[in-house]
Design goal:
This protein has 307 residues and is α/β, with parallel strands linked by helices. 38% of the residues lie in helices and 18% in strands. It is globular, with a radius of gyration of 19 Å.
Length: 307
């Protein structure tokens, strides 16, 4: 489908006159079981706005136009090889009403309380989905941000909340996608430590959250020495894109190299694909999907006759 102004106005009318249409659309959605899949995923991330993070590169308000954001997400979801989307309730419910989530993997974003640039940014409270609602909506899992600041006593509350969410999702046999960072504040700004040592430390902490790790997946940045990073866990891992920087070809090359590592099972990319240089969303998504497809094929076990 090509998203039109009429489609968007229809969403506005449904939200006013038929708020129950969201639950009805969720109940009627043909679902795709994560367990029945091959364990490889190409997902579109669309939960940045709820944390007040609207910037892409030097455009501070790039994601502010909801109509334009939805058009880009719809374009991405319709490309071959795209398995699903990660988002907050407002975005996912718009997509449900548009009817573009059929047979897609849908992950609800759970904690968006650490607003970008706020004095309380590292207080990553659960202000979005909870496990009960994710299950009731028929979604496939929940994602949580877990930033760890060793100098901030408030970090322990984030760890406890994430642990409870991992446990609650696990009890419902739903994917618990944990995105950990070692973070710190300097001159009023929060920065994530993207050294291999810091990412490994964040993995060790995040992997132990909750009463079970049976349904835990990690969402990790692509950093230097990813080989060492991926030796820090046996949990399945998806790679994130972050705020795009540098040339696209360099980014794709880094993704391709990391996708070949044991334990890596795909990509969860947002701004890099939804707002690419040159604005060719379909082209950027196709390139990323092709990388995942190639890694998936390369990892497939050989048949019994060796073919």
């Amino acid at each position: 489908m090509t998203l039109s102004e009429l489609d968007l106005e229809r969403i506005r009318e449904l939200r006013v006159r038929r708020p129950d249409a969201v639950a009805q659309a969720a109940a009627a959605r043909p679902r795709r079981s994560v367990d029945d899949d091959d364990g490889w995923f190409m997902l579109i991330a669309a939960d940045h706005p709820a944390r007040g993070a609207l910037a892409v590169r030097r455009d501070a308000m790039a994601m502010a136009d909801r109509y334009e954001l939805l058009r880009r997400i719809v374009t991405a979801l319709q490309r071959p090889g795209v398995d699903g989307v990660l988002g907050t309730a407002d975005v996912l419910e718009d997509l449900l009403l548009l009817g573009v989530l059929d047979d897609k993997v849908v992950i609800g974003s759970m904690n968006r309380g650490g607003l970008h640039g706020a004095s309380f940014e590292l207080d990553d409270r659960f202000t979005g989905y909870d496990a009960e609602t994710i299950a009731a909506m028929g979604f496939e899992g929940g994602k949580m941000l877990c930033r760890i600041d060793m100098a901030d006593a408030g970090t322990v509350a984030t760890l406890e909340s994430c642990a409870r969410a991992v446990t609650a999702l696990g009890r419902r046999r739903l994917m618990a996608m944990v995105e950990p960072f070692v973070s710190s504040r300097s001159s009023g700004r929060v920065a994530n430590d993207l050294s291999a040592a810091a990412v490994i430390r964040s993995i060790a902490i995040a992997s132990g959250l909750g009463a079970t790790s049976g349904y835990t997946w990690l969402k990790l940045p692509v950093v230097d020495d990813m080989e060492q990073v991926m030796r820090a866990t046996t949990l399945p891992t998806l790679l994130l894109g972050g705020d795009p920087a540098g040339l696209p070809d360099q980014t794709y090359a880094a993704w391709e190299k990391a996708l070949a590592l044991p334990g890596v099972r795909g990509l969860v990319i947002g701004r890099s694909l939804l707002y690419p240089p040159g604005d060719d969303v379909a082209g950027a998504v196709d390139t990323a999907a092709a990388l995942v497809r190639a890694a998936r094929n390369a990892s497939a076990p050989a048949s019994a006759d060796g073919k």
